[in-house]
Design goal:
The complex is a heterodimer. By secondary structure, chain A is an alpha/beta fold. In chain A, about 45% of the residues lie in helices and about 15% in strands. In chain A, strand 4, helix 5 and strand 5 form a beta-alpha-beta unit. By secondary structure, chain B is an alpha/beta fold. Chain B has nine helices and 13 strands. In chain B, strand 7 and strand 8 form a beta hairpin. Classes of the chains: A alpha/beta, B alpha/beta. At the A-B interface, helix 2 and helix 3 of A face helix 4 and strand 11 of B.
Chain lengths: ~190, ~375
């Protein structure tokens, strides 16, 4: 009898640890990568996603219909007046596009990963309009520390219970992507 | 009474003659070329007019330095001095041709791309005419010029500048800005001929990659930046990431598709060559700087007014109290060029660009620029 109890306890413990260790991210591919603010940082994310082995599509002006075949959305946030001008849009056009994308993603239960990799250069009045919108609606935040010295993103993450990774260097994004998309070698 | 007036008039007339004469002498010193001493890595020196005879025997003609390695590989073209009021651009180019060698590939350097713009300064800017870099063998002076081709060479400016071939309209003064003139015209304005000559170098030398070195004011949105043509995004994005790993931060900008005439746009669009432009931060540019002191502002990179502007949050890049010395700005450019070559080699291992004797950023900060300039017996820049 005692042996049976011990066996049951051991099985429960083994199952407990097994479930704990097998808990993986539920963020799926393929990914749509888009910009919020039209900075060129999206091009770095393209390279990092390739290095991380993620299946993705990239469209800096992605619209709602572009989310049809994707299972997660990466928003690379940060404004560039050159980028907005080159795209022939203004700040309000871009904010509207992002708002619609976020709404659709939430409706379709698509995970949103917001990345801010431009550091201090992609902060400021214009950028922060996009940064706030993209960050508040994210499921994950990946932010370069130099862009969060005032805890702008950390506070958003805390207030909205969003998981945030603060990275030193842009190249560290690759590791974060591998974690999110379960690409890390076991 | 009348005699007194006549004497006074004659005195003032003589004073104005003397002042004019001395000013003219001072102005004409800017027509004397800077001394550039090619290092052992330079295998050939030609003239830009060899690529377009329409600038031969004009003020736009300039030297082209070719550094060819023993082994064949990629060909890079580097421009400095598009804007001679951006010294880190042309001093970096001079640094490279005087110091480094090429092991594989060809590195073509045009250190003073707009030679005419070196012969004058922008009016009403209290602009200095020269600055000095200390070397192990003494002092070397370099001119500090203008953003624009000299009006002696190209005048008058039109009311508006219509870019060829896009038809884009800009302010008339931009007709003398080399970096609004690409791809140029063989028989256009002097500046358009210059731009065309440089694009001919790309064509005739089968250049694989183009780099244009610049500086910008601390309040300009695109400063300490890499500006990339879409063809160069793989190289520039990786360069940015690896530079950041080495402690050199950039902002990353795409070359705007609808802004024509710039090197990074037109080299890519018309020549289908990946191209980037690098900007460092220069205290003497922009509207916040204070009184002008050539050595203090240009070489030591200090300016109290810019520092104060930074404290008020008015600048895009920080201006530390210690300043942004020329060796720091040149160090950024040199280190980034080395990184570009390494990234290129990773992407194109069969067609490499291998540079030798490129000092690290840290070495340049510790030893200064002068240590790496060619300090052998000076020769006239013929």
């Amino acid at each position: 009898m005692r042996r049976n109890y011990l066996l049951i306890i051991m099985i429960i413990l083994v199952l407990f640890f097994a479930i704990g260790n097998s808990k993986e991210s539920d963020t799926k591919e393929p990914v749509m990568i888009t910009s919020a603010g039209q900075s060129a940082d999206i091009l770095m994310v393209k390279i990092l996603a390739t290095k991380a082995g993620i299946s993705y599509d990239i469209n800096k002006l992605a619209k709602v219909e572009d989310l049809t075949d994707c299972k997660s959305l990466i928003i690379v946030t940060g404004a560039s007046t050159k980028g907005l001008g080159a795209a022939g849009i203004d700040k309000n056009d871009e904010l509207e596009r992002i708002n619609l994308l976020i709404a659709k993603a939430k409706e379709n239960k698509i995970k949103i990963i917001t990345m801010h990799l431009g550091g201090k250069a992609r902060r400021g009045k214009l950028s922060d309009e996009f940064n706030k919108l993209s960050a508040e609606n994210a499921d994950y935040l990946i932010v370069r520390k130099s862009g969060d010295e005032d805890k702008f993103f950390s506070k958003i993450a805390e207030n909205n219970e969003i998981e945030i990774s603060l990275i030193e260097k842009i190249i560290d994004t690759k590791l974060e992507l591998e974690k999110i998309y379960n690409k890390k070698k076991k | 009474m009348k005699n007194k007036k006549i004497i006074r008039a004659v005195i003032f007339f003589l004073i104005s003659i003397i002042v004019t004469y001395l000013s003219a002498i001072q102005f004409l010193t800017m027509h004397k070329p800077d001394i550039i001493i090619p290092g052992e890595g330079v295998t050939k020196i030609v003239s830009l007019s060899d690529y377009n005879s329409n600038i031969k025997e004009t003020a736009l003609d300039t030297k082209v330095y070719i550094m060819e390695g023993k082994d064949s590989g990629a060909t890079f073209l580097l421009l400095g001095g598009t804007h001679p009021n951006e010294p880190a651009g042309y001093i970096s180019a001079i640094f490279l041709l005087e110091h480094i060698k090429v092991k594989k590939g060809r590195f073509i350097i045009i250190p003073q791309a707009n030679n005419s713009a070196f012969t004058h300064t922008d009016p009403q800017e209290a602009s200095p005419q020269k600055f000095m870099i200390k070397t192990t063998k003494g002092e070397r002076y370099f001119r500090y010029g203008s953003r624009y081709t000299s009006p002696i060479v190209q005048w008058p400016d039109p009311q508006v500048f219509i870019h060829y071939p896009s038809g884009q309209i800009l302010s008339g003064q931009e007709t003398r800005n080399l970096n609004r003139g690409y791809p140029g015209k063989p028989n256009g304005s002097m500046t358009e001929r210059l731009a065309y000559s440089i694009t001919e170098v790309f064509r005739k030398e089968n250049v694989d990659f183009g780099i244009d070195l610049h500086e910008a004011s601390l309040e300009y949105p695109v400063v300490n930046a890499i500006v990339t043509h879409p063809l160069a995004t793989d190289i520039s994005a990786e360069t940015m990431m690896y530079s950041q790993m080495n402690g050199i931060n950039f902002s990353y900008e795409m070359s705007p598709e609808n802004f024509h005439g710039l090197s990074h746009r037109e080299w890519g669009d018309h020549l289908e060559i990946p191209a980037i432009l690098l900007e460092s931060a220069h205290n003497l540019m922009g509207r916040y700087h204070g009184a002008v002191h050539p050595q203090k502002n240009i070489v030591e990179g200090q300016d109290e007014m810019n520092y104060m502007a930074g404290q008020e949050g008015l600048l895009t890049v920080e201006c530390p109290e210690t300043g942004l010395p020329l060796k720091l700005r040149v160090g950024r450019h040199i280190t980034t060029i080395k990184t570009i070559a390494n990234v290129w080699n990773g992407l194109y291992p069969e067609h490499k660009m291998e540079l030798e004797d490129v000092p690290s950023f840290q070495e340049i900060q510790e030893k200064g620029i002068g240590e790496f300039l060619n300090n052998k017996k000076e020769k006239e820049n013929k």
